[in-house]
Amino acid sequence: MPSKGGIETFVYEISKRLVRNGHEVLVVTSSRGLPPSSYRHRVEGIDVVRYPERVRVWEVPFVPQIPIKAFLEAKHSVDLVHISGATPLQTDLAHTLLKARRKRIVYTHHFDPETRTGRLSKTYAWLSIPIVNLADVIVASTASYAATSPTLKRVLRKVRVIPMGVNPSEYLVRGLAGRESIILFVGKLIYYKNPLGLLRSFARIANEVPESKLVFIGDGEERPILIREAKRLGVSDRVVLRGFVERKELLAWLAEARVLALPSINRREAFGIVLLEAAASGLPVIGSDIPGVREVVESLGGLLVPPRDEEKLAEALRKALDDDGWWKAASSRGVNVVRERFSWEKIYHKYLSLYGELAG
Fold first, then answer.
1. Is 202 strand, coil or helix?
2. What is the mean pLDDT of residues 252-262?
3. What predicted TM-score, i.e. pTM, was given to this entire model?
């Protein structure tokens, strides 16, 4: 995988299952800083072609070689193309070129490319409607996200809902005994995930729960801001910034923490696979009351808070740390719901059925 984000995880989990079941899969993607030696190789039978990122558009990379390579490959024996987006210009070019090849297209719309100001986002959403409509089927991870997306709500007749997933057997399920008063954040330290708001909310309750800690797993542009703010708030000794960690360590944190918080503030956060990872470990969750995330948190029995409301977030953190009855109920529900609805194996079969429907 080029990086450890939700889209990359999704592509990897679906692709490796396709290969195991006798299908040939070519993934064309970006390098995300990996060396040229990794630009062409095989991962568990998946052929991977990567191209370097040299230009950024609206906070995301634009790599035109990706859709061009897909267009060239589609000339040969390609039965179906699956596009993951939305990356402005790149996703649009892919749809246009591959439709010119008269290929069947499944498009998974992972998120709306919302910017800090939102102005460009609205323009792009309007312009992208006829492009996205070129896909034969559009997949959204939740119904609420599709219904509120400025792009998808115009093409709902083509939208199917298939969620993201996890591999439940990978996680250690631990009850309340043996866990510490740790508030866990997992993800990029970037503005739309709102790690700064979480830090400030934690500072509001830190004195009430003196043994509590706030642990950040991940790295990003807001790391130095978090360090300065933790010092200003007087909680530096209670805040841990681990950066990116190996998978084994992440699983250990999920089994040790008391609650996971995902306080994202805009539509760049459309689902939150980390919510499923936490629930699979028996770890209750707190998430922002925004489309997509709302649906996932509610299904897992977690707590919802208004985006950017640091006081309400602090109240939710306090409840998660103090209310053992709520914790046990949410933990049990989360584990069961993930096993019943959100395993990658079940998600794969939903996509396989969709592929078969389109490929005939």
1. helix
2. 98
3. 0.94
Q: Which domain holds residue 193?
A: 169-341
Grouping H, G, I as helix, E, B as strand and the rest as coil, residue 37 is: helix
Give the C-alpha distances (Å, rounded to integers) separating 101 from 68, 136, 169, 288: 12, 13, 41, 41
pLDDT tens readout for residues 285-330: 999 999 999 999 999 999 999 999 999 999 999 999 999 999 999 9
Q: How far apart are CA 174 and CA 334, in angstroms?
A: 12
Structural domains counted in the chain: 2
- Please provide residue 139's backbone torsions phi and psi, each rounded to the nearest 5 degrees: -115, 130
Q: Looking only at Cα atoms, what is the longest distance across the chain? A: 64
Q: Which residues contact 340 (CB under 8 A, 6 or more apart)?
A: none
> Which tokens in the block code for residue 169?
């057997």
Give the CA distances from residue 210 to residues 198, 283, 286, in Å, rounded to whole numbers and listed in that order.
17, 21, 20
Report yes or no: 82 and 108 within 8 Å, Cβ to Cβ.
yes
Predicted pLDDT of residue 4: 64
Nearest to 49 by CA among 41, 57, 37, 59: 41
Do 286 and 161 share a domain, yes or no? no
Structure-block tokens of residue 24: 């040939």
Give the pairing type, strands 159-161 and 137-140.
Answer: parallel
Is residue 70 within 8 Å of 91, Cβ to Cβ? no
Cβ atoms within 10 Å, residue 13: 19
Q: 72-107 burial by CB neighbour count: b if 16+ within 10 A, else e?
A: ebbeeeeebbbbbbbbbbbbbbbbebbbeeebbbbb
Separation CA 26–CA 351 (nearest Å): 16
Residues 187 and 235 in one domain: yes
Q: What digits encode the pLDDT tens for the residues 109-165? A: 999 988 776 677 888 889 899 999 999 999 999 999 999 999 999 999 999 999 999
Residue 89 covered by a domain: yes
Beta strands in the chain (DSSP E): 26-30, 40-43, 46-51, 55-57, 60-62, 81-85, 105-109, 137-140, 159-161, 182-186, 213-217, 239-243, 259-262, 285-288, 303-305
